[in-house]
Design goal:
The chain is an alpha+beta fold. The chain has two helices and seven strands. Strands 1, 2, 3, 4, 5, 6 and 7 form a seven-stranded mixed beta sheet that branches. It starts with a strand and ends in a 5-residue tail after the last helix.
Length: about 130
Amino acid sequence: MRKVVAAIITREPDKKILICQRRKDQPLGLKWEFPGGKIEPGEEPVAALRRELQEELAIEAEIGEQLTQFEHHYKNGGGVELTFFRVLTYAGEMKNIIFKDIRWVDRRSLPRFDFLEADVKLVREIAAGNIV
C-alpha cells in the first residue's frame, strides 16, 4: 500500500481552499487533487508533506494538525493510505511548478471539480463544512 500525504491549504481571510489539476500526461491526467505526494522510505509524514509542497508549489509550509487518514482501494487492485494535514501558513510566493492549473476555490464549489476517486468523500465532507 502506497503512503501519501496531502495538504488542505486555506487562504485568509476568504477561507478559500487550494486545489491542483494534474497535467494531461500524468497518471489520472486532468483530475483535481490536493497538493502532496508519496512518502519516501524512512521519511516522516510531516517531512514528506513539507518536501512535496516545496517541490510542487515552491513554498515553505507550516504543517498543522492531521485532519483525517483513510485507505482507498482502486478497482485495478492498487491501494493508497492517505493522510491529510491542515496548512494555514506558508512562506514564499506560491508558484505552479508541476500542475496544469492551481485554483483557490470556495469549499461549497469543490464537488463541481473532477477530483481523484480517492479524494471524493473528503471533498464532500469539506464542502459540507464537516472538515476544515
